[in-house]
């Protein structure tokens, strides 16, 4: 991914400082740049967010033939730079939300902003298997809404026992021949209504007291090896897709003790806005969204955050 933005020196200041990239951060940058605010984006070394590990995106408006996640992120990056966004491929190592202007540190540099937009996203929780990571986008996914349609007429498995896992399993029944829910306990943690829907669905069965011991396959996933957590017995399950639904972890470590978080560590925003608990700091995308976690909703809140920041700057006399 090329970077045609002009160089930004240590200590550079901007009216809008954006931490994080992906659809939320890049969209915020596009809107801020078009408003003449010349934003600086601390995109991170792993820029582009979760879409950088997504092969085909078919549900984002404007891409009728689908697009790879990295290609879409490159389009958004180029669009942001076209209007004057300055994008830095550095990781934020510290953020000072109490200083004015706000200060973000990276390895060996720091940048300041009159306003701050947080778009650091959330990371899917994985099982921690080497074989799981080897097959990401080759049969292993953490998002049924994103990838489910790619597995039409195939047997699939979902790992998890909460509402998210049941939602994923129910969604996948639209495409799969059969969905097996793998859960390490003998009963679900999901809400009663979600349990009822999943347990009564003819296409869903359950591997109780089981965990995935290994993801099997050659070029693509062909099955999983399950381990009984009580007896240690192992068996193989023939599936062509494995969906890991054991939750997401919002990337809010830098903001703990500085901004208000909910019980799951997502940034809290005022309803109908992107305003956080601190004046002049706005949050967009998955870092503040435990519900939808889609590229298009992230982009929408990125737009909102930029407009909120622009209006706040004007009210405070910065712009």
What does this structure look like?
It is a single chain. The chain has 319 residues and is α/β, with parallel strands linked by helices. Helix content is 24%, strand content 26%. The chain has seven helices and 17 strands. The chain has helices spanning 22-34, 69-82, 130-134, 144-147, 163-172, 192-199, 295-316, and strands at residues 13-19, 40-42, 86-88, 92-96, 102-106, 109-118, 122-124, 140-141, 155-159, 178-182, 204-207, 210-217, 221-228, 234-237, 241-244, 248-250, 281-283. The strands form four sheets. Strands 1, 2, 3, 4, 5, 6 and 17 form a seven-stranded mixed sheet that branches. It has a five-stranded parallel sheet with strand order 8-15-9-10-11, with helices on one face. α6 links the parallel β10 and β11. α1 packs parallel to α2, α1 (22-34) runs parallel beside α7 and α5 packs parallel to α6. The longest helix is centred in the last third of the chain and has 22 residues, at 295-316.
């Amino acid at each position: 991914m090329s970077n045609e933005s002009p160089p930004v020196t240590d200590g550079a200041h901007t009216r809008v400082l954006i931490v994080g990239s992906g659809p939320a951060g890049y969209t915020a940058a596009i809107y801020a740049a078009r408003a003449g605010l010349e934003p600086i984006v601390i995109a991170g070394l792993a820029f582009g967010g979760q879409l950088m590990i997504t092969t085909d995106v078919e549900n984002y408006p404007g891409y009728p033939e689908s697009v790879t996640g990295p290609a879409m992120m490159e389009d958004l990056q180029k669009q942001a730079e076209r209007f004057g966004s300055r994008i830095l491929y550095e990781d934020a190592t510290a953020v000072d939300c109490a200083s004015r202007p706000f200060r973000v540190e990276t390895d060996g540099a720091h940048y300041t902003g009159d306003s701050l937009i947080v778009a650091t996203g959330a990371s899917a929780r994985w099982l921690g298997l080497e074989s799981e990571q080897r097959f990401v986008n080759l049969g292993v996914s953490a998002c049924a809404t994103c990838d489910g349609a790619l597995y039409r007429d195939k047997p699939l498995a979902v790992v998890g026992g909460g509402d998210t896992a049941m939602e994923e399993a129910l969604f996948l029944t639209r495409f799969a021949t059969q969905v097996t829910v793998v859960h390490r306990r003998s009963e679900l943690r999901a809400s009663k209504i979600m349990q009822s829907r999943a347990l009564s669905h003819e296409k869903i069965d359950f591997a109780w007291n089981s965990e995935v011991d290994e993801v099997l396959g050659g070029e693509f996933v062909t099955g999983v090896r399950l381990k009984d957590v009580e007896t240690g017995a192992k068996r193989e399950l023939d599936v062509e897709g494995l969906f890991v639904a054991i939750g997401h972890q919002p990337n809010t470590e830098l903001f703990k003790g500085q901004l208000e978080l909910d019980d799951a560590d997502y940034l809290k925003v005022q309803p109908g806005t992107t305003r956080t608990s601190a004046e002049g700091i706005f949050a967009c995308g998955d870092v503040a969204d435990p519900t939808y976690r889609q590229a298009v909703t992230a982009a929408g809140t990125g737009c909102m955050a930029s407009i909120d920041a622009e209006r706040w700057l004007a009210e405070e006399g910065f712009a």
